Amino acid sequence: MNNKVLHPRALEPVTLLMIVLTSVVGAIIGIQLITTLGISANTSIIGAIFAMILGRIPIGKLIAFKSVHRQNIIQTAISSATFSAASSLMLPIGIPYVLGYENLVLPLFIGVILAMFVDALLLYKFFDTKIFPATGTWPPGIATAEAIKAGDKGGKNAKVLIGGVLIGIVGSILKIPMSAFGVAFIGNIWALTMFGIGLLLRGYSVQLFNVDLNEYYIPHGIMIGAGIVALFQVAFTLLSKRSTKESEELIYSKDQKEIRQGFGVGFVAYLAIALLIALIGGMISHMSFGMLIGFIIFATIAAFVHELIVGIAAMHAGWFPAFAVAFITLIVGILIGFPAPALALLAGFSAATGVAFADMGYDLKTGFILRGNGSDPVLEKEGRKQQMIAGMLAFSISAVVVLLSYQSYFAQGLVAPVNHVYAATIQSGVTGDVAKQLLIWSIPGALIQLIGGSKRQMGILFATGLLLINPIAGWAVLVGIILRVIFTYMTKGKKESEMTVFAAGVIAGDALYSFFSSILKIGK
Hints:
- By secondary structure, the protein is mostly helical.
- It has 21 helices and no strands.
- Helix 1 crosses helix 16 (377-411) and helix 4 (105-126) packs antiparallel against helix 11.
- The model is unreliable at 244-250 (pLDDT under 50).
């Protein structure tokens, strides 16, 4: 690409107008879905299709949306607004409301808004590093990019993509998790195999072993062990001197110094937010000074760890156990002995981190592919900047939409269903035996993560599967991996690009079906 080619700006009047419009729509969709169905749909493909349609309307400046980069800006905005409104904002503030602590809703809302912005900024800082490489899978990002490319260029890949979309839709109609099937063709085989095995074990543990894994906190313990090892692996990566700066910069656009700075700034930012939430939430009257300090430090560490684990799972599998990992934080908080109001704030703060991080990773992956996979560093740097501006605008708009609407939803009893799980756990508490179970099962989790290494993330993905109740997705992943191996062997690895396009189509088809079927359910 020519370095003189300028990337479209997010603040151009017509682009800005479409960012505002799609962000409002995305935020409303996100709130509706999380409070009625308990899910948050990926609207990236919808945003991309909307921008493609605009570019084909022969009216004035709308033709400018023929640019794949403008289409990318729009999909970034609607995706950011949908996920942030639903999972970063509406879900967390519902936890204190369900528990009857209405006075804590606004303090937590202020905190999770700030956490959401920090979340996305940290991904922007970490994207295209040794920890979160741009060449990582980020499956929904690939799907959106291939859809935009097919709409722009057509040709053989467009046919392959359309075929994948149709298969994705048909499979979704048959209640098969086609995103899991599609991811199997493009993700790390080791990580995804462990993910699939985890899904199957959780789904069939009662039938096979007459044991409910969740009842013994086995998934939670394994995630804790894997998460601790993953953190040490990240630290080792940052401190390792084996790769020179010169060789590092040939692969990544950001060096280890920038990553360390990001970790430092992120930790301080989360510490400040945790302190702010504790103070304006009145925790000083519920806890001793020592317990208050402990709460602030634990909340900070939990938010950072939650973000990294969710980000790793999202990058490798396209699925992230955000609610489940926040539940682990809550369990540990109960064992420590924090009072119920503090636990409500802790659960909300933890649940708010990681989602914007993962979604921004998907969006920047889309842009990375559309901008030539880093072949033009100048264009890539400017493109990321414009996507980040679009994302920040979308976050701001989603915050306003949630602020204006949450009281109306709560008054109707509309909260995210998982809020009742958090509330029930806080009210009932957990026994001392839980700590023992967590400790025991953290050992195999740590060993699996250690054996797999930082590149495979086997422990994290195995625990992710165990935390999700979706055995059919486990079958979809493993069948997809088997077909991938067969196809690669038969073609001698010469058609990997077509396999990637097909997988992107399958994921896109599943996203389209899920989105429209969810909207129809809301309409009923």
